[in-house]
Amino acid sequence: MDPAGWTVGDTATLSDTDGEPLQVTLTGVAYRDALAKDKTASVHGKYAVALAFTMKSASGGTLGEQTGNMIKWQGDGAQVEEWDYTNAPWQGCIDDYFIYADLEPGKAYKAITDINPPSKGGTVIITDEWGGVARWNLPEADTGKGTEPATKFTTRDCR
Description:
The protein is an all-beta fold. The chain is built from 1 helix and 9 strands. The chain has one helix at residues 148-151; strands spanning 11-15, 21-33, 47-56, 71-75, 78-81, 109-115, 123-127, 133-137, 143-144. The strands form 2 sheets. Strands 1, 2, 3, 6 and 9 form a 5-stranded antiparallel sheet that branches. The chain has a 4-stranded antiparallel sheet with strand order 5-4-7-8, with no helix packed on it. Strand 4 and strand 5 form a beta hairpin. The radius of gyration is 15 Å and the shape is globular.
């Protein structure tokens, strides 16, 4: 467990859907204007935030189901959920980095997900199906690596 929350580069141990250990490392955070590509997009927050992770499990497995509402952001008295943000500027461009993908046993997997918070910073929280919780305190500026497959499509189309 994380007594006070981790930061970019820190690894948390959660459980995959089979209850086996799943190593999850937040490797990068990138903030972009949520309306950078489409000024008419339906968004709740000011920022489109790409969160890059490296995930690894000795047995394979998955983090869970996207509809399981497992990833949240909290900050400034607000909470937003990852699963209901469908208008990120890079939507449809990062399918190869799906955070709920089936992992190959023992192989590191690069994942990207996004959130739509009203402010920078805050905390991203992942809760697994077994009650495990990991919290990362987010920096207020772009930090780390692994977000580039998303952010390169902030203002241009990937199709």
